[in-house]
Amino acid sequence: LEEVREVASDRESCRGLPRQRWQQDNKKTLNMMLEEAGELVKDTDLFGRAVMNLMFRKGHAN
Question: What is the pLDDT of residues 26-49, one digit of tens each?
Fold first, then answer.
């Protein structure tokens, strides 16, 4: 995990919108705190259902 953070922080941001941190993106997309997402990820079936439910409500479901 630490290696992923180092690689991500070494990249230059592209033009346009400022780069967001994955924690901010997680909070905005899933509408939950990082700790809540961490608990939810422990049960992969529950996590999958929660994400699909959220995407359906936001209109992003296929």
Answer: 677 777 777 777 777 788 888 888
